[in-house]
Design brief:
single chain; 328 residues; alpha/beta; Quinone Oxidoreductase, Chain A, domain 1; Rossmann fold; 2 domains; 7-stranded mixed β-sheet; 11 helices; 16 strands; globular
């Protein structure tokens, strides 16, 4: 089968299209004939060799996909050959076929085609685990989403709106800010020209944010604490602005604030299964009702995976970048 492999870390040119053996399902797994995959920031970090858990080299990147079940491992009873699914994967989705634990599959929503479905699993699981499960997002809460125009951000804005929260989002550039508003943000904040703390406090009459979904890390931590409302929660899912920071504990304690740092890829199988089940229960009906939909900026063919990485690194996209595995 064809796959994009990473023989060594480096720039986008390190990604190579090659022929590799097809996977076989282990106990509890299925094999998916992959229709499409979607890029994630973790893919870029793994390619560069700067991700917390290094990729096994040579290896195949890719942590989400969509496609059709073509083989079942021993013990799999909840899925059948021919089922159209999307899946959370620990690696290997940049390929024509991939083996996946059956507990990490989601049925393709009836209103979303297989190309668009590839953009759902990672964003849905990240948003559910951080906003719904850990932070307890509810109607009337004030939610601040950093990176509102990204793959996670566009999904988080829609989720907040669907739940009934007041959503604010940071973004760079007028076009990205406008998309955040169209997706359900009450107000989009230019991180280049505005102080998100001042804006959120002004728009909430001094209250602040109940929940901050942060992909930036160190450079934003102190200001995230400043924008918190009493008993506010920071869910940190990325470290794009740095890994090391001092925490002003006095200010945080004064607000009874909490900070939770999470990642998805390195969680145990049982934890991932619980997250997928939560997504299936709480978010999939909203997707099928059209309240939350995947946002896809651009679709690349498999042979242009390196160019897809370059495009993502350029930061011009809104939502997800999808790579079609099936040739048109």
């Amino acid at each position: 089968m064809r796959a994009v492999i990473l023989p060594h870390t480096g720039g986008p040119e390190a990604l190579v299209l090659a022929d590799v053996p097809e996977p076989r399902p282990a106990t509890g797994e299925v094999v998916i004939d992959v229709h499409a995959t979607a890029l994630n920031f973790a893919d870029l970090l793994q390619r560069k060799g700067t991700y917390g858990t290094p990729a096994t080299l040579p290896g195949i990147l890719g942590i989400e996909c969509s496609g059709t079940v073509v083989a079942l491992g021993e013990g799999v009873e909840s899925w059948a050959v021919g089922d159209e699914v999307c899946a959370l994967v620990s690696g290997g989705a940049y390929a024509e076929r991939v083996a996946v634990p059956a507990t990490q599959l989601l049925r393709r929503p009836r209103n979303v085609d297989l190309i668009m479905a590839a953009a759902l699993p990672e964003a849905a699981c990240t948003v559910w685990s951080n906003l719904v499960d850990i932070s307890g997002l509810g109607a009337g809460d004030v939610l601040l989403v950093h990176g509102g125009a990204g793959g996670i951000g566009t999904f988080a804005i829609q989720t907040g709106r669907a739940i009934g929260a007041r959503v604010f989002a940071t973004a760079g550039g007028a076009d990205k800010m406008q998309r955040c508003v169209e997706l359900g943000a009450e107000y989009a904040i230019s991180y280049r020209d505005e102080d998100f703390v001042a804006v959120v406090r002004d728009k909430t009459e001094g209250y602040g944010a109940d929940i901050v979904l942060d992909n930036m890390g160190a450079a934003y931590l102190a200001r995230n604490i400043d924008v918190l409302a009493p008993d506010g929660r920071i869910a940190m899912i990325g470290l794009q602005s740095g890994r090391d920071a001092e925490i002003p504990l006095g200010r945080m304690m004064g607000k009874r604030g909490s900070l939770c740092t999470t990642s998805l890829r390195d969680r145990p199988l049982a934890a991932k299964a619980r997250i997928v089940e939560g997504v299936r229960r709480d978010l999939w009906p909203r997707i099928e009702d059209g309240d939350i939909l995947p946002v896809v900026d651009r679709i690349f063919p498999l042979a242009e995976m390196a160019e897809a990485h370059r495009y993502m690194e350029g930061g011009r996209h809104v939502g997800k970048i999808v790579v079609s595995i099936k040739e048109s």
